[in-house]
Amino acid sequence: MSDSHPVTDQFWPTLPQPLDRSDDSREPSNTEFTVIVEQTEGSGNSMRWLAVPVTPSTWDDRETARAEAQRYAWTFQPRHPMSEQRRSVYRVSPDEYLVIIEGATMTFSLRVTVAEPLGYHSSDR
Fold first, then answer.
1. pLDDT per residue as tens, the chain (125 positions)
2. Calpha distance 111→22 (Å, rounded)
């Protein structure tokens, strides 16, 4: 994980938006996909979800990105728990996995999602 992009606790909505079925459902030819991991950080009342891209790579087709997302669901090593006892992986949608990791004393969860980067904005302060 790179420190070059600051991570904030800003809420990232993950609910799918309704699709207009009259549109052509094929992806545009210039579309790229990446994999993002959202994981729980902190403990107690300060526990929150944080999202970070897990790879600087992008893929030209959704199927390759989906295969990478599934691989990350099984292999991504979050900061917590330190002593993983059990990992359960659930496919929530073709583009999203929910991972529940039971540690020796606590259970943590993370989501692995295929995402289409729409652009980046940085403020110069």
1. 344 433 333 333 443 444 444 445 555 556 899 999 998 777 777 777 777 777 778 899 999 999 999 999 999 988 777 789 999 999 999 999 999 999 998 888 899 999 998 877 777 65
2. 30
